[in-house]
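A common beginner's mistake is to predict each chain separately and then try to dock the pieces by hand. The better habit, illustrated here, is to supply every component at once so that their relative placement is modeled jointly.
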Amino acid sequence: MRLVIGAIVALALAASLGLGATWWTVANGLPVSGLRIGVWKAEPDIGTLDADPYEVAQTARSGEAPISYGDGLAFTATTDDQGRTLKSACDYELRGDIPPVRLWTLSAFRPDGRRRNAARPDVALTSADAVRRAGAPLSIVVSPRARPGNWLPLEGDGRFVLRLTLYDTTLGTPLERANPTALLSLRRGACG
Amino acid sequence: MWLMRAAYVLALGLVVAGLVHVGSLLGVPRVATQGPYERLARLDADGRFALLPDTGEKADLLPFRDPAFVTAACRYDLAKGPVVLRAELPPTYGALTVHNRLGQPFYLLTDKAAREGRVEVKIFASEEQATAEEEAAPDDAPQLRIVSPTPTGFALVRLFTPGESAREGVRAAASKAACSQASASKVNP
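With all components supplied together, the output reads:
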């Protein structure tokens, strides 16, 4: 009798722990993998045939078609510099320098990757229309209200994530991964 | 005594949990119904490039799709023979990527590789086919030959839109992309 109970407990433990670990890692990615620069996180290997089983499963679950490694690198930020989740009611200031790239784009998504406004084409801020001032780092304001300078409009409510995609970059190479260049900082401003 | 027994049950549970984790993880892509390949089924993109709309529900078909880009997608099936992809890639930035069944990209051509603004590539199911074609290629056949790791997959044409006013023109360029079954092969194996 005790043997049966022991076996049931062991199997229940195995099923819940094993499936739970699968569910969590497929939804969130491995906590230690990828390339982290400040608040930004990217998975350079997801865009290659060398993607590990975690990354393959992540693609299958999210439905995202990953950007090829030679094409670019997509960084996602879900929190600000102090670790608070990004909320649509707040202003955020991104500041810093972007490493040499051919093109970059910045856009806001719902946490599951859907666009924030289905009625209109979504907006992105890109290197083609960003304003840069000589001798000063790049500064971008993400806000629901119009702002001078580089402004990424925020629509909708609730949480959001920022996606910074660098095209034609060397940031994912092993050398850069070991000692990555800094990216934009993400500071929360006024909320309300 | 019962402590020994509990430790034994715990150890057994952890080992089997590891096996369950690895097994279920490897099984996820096989049972997934919302992978990128499956999602594109709703776009009528089998054997032809279809533009992903910028508005409405279908604009969200591929999550985290860069809104600064116009995207066209085509699902290919190599069971009926090789597939030829042709696309116009304007010099503002354009890329043609070929993805396997599970979504991992295995081939990329950007506008830097384009000749007169165009790229074309032929996808084969096996190395043997590609080699046979190389020996007896007709003059007008694409010079780039690649082998797909999976018999099905999809290709994306992504063109950068430098400002909203350019969107219509870029969409027109993207809609010219072709994804067709190669015409009857002249190769005799």
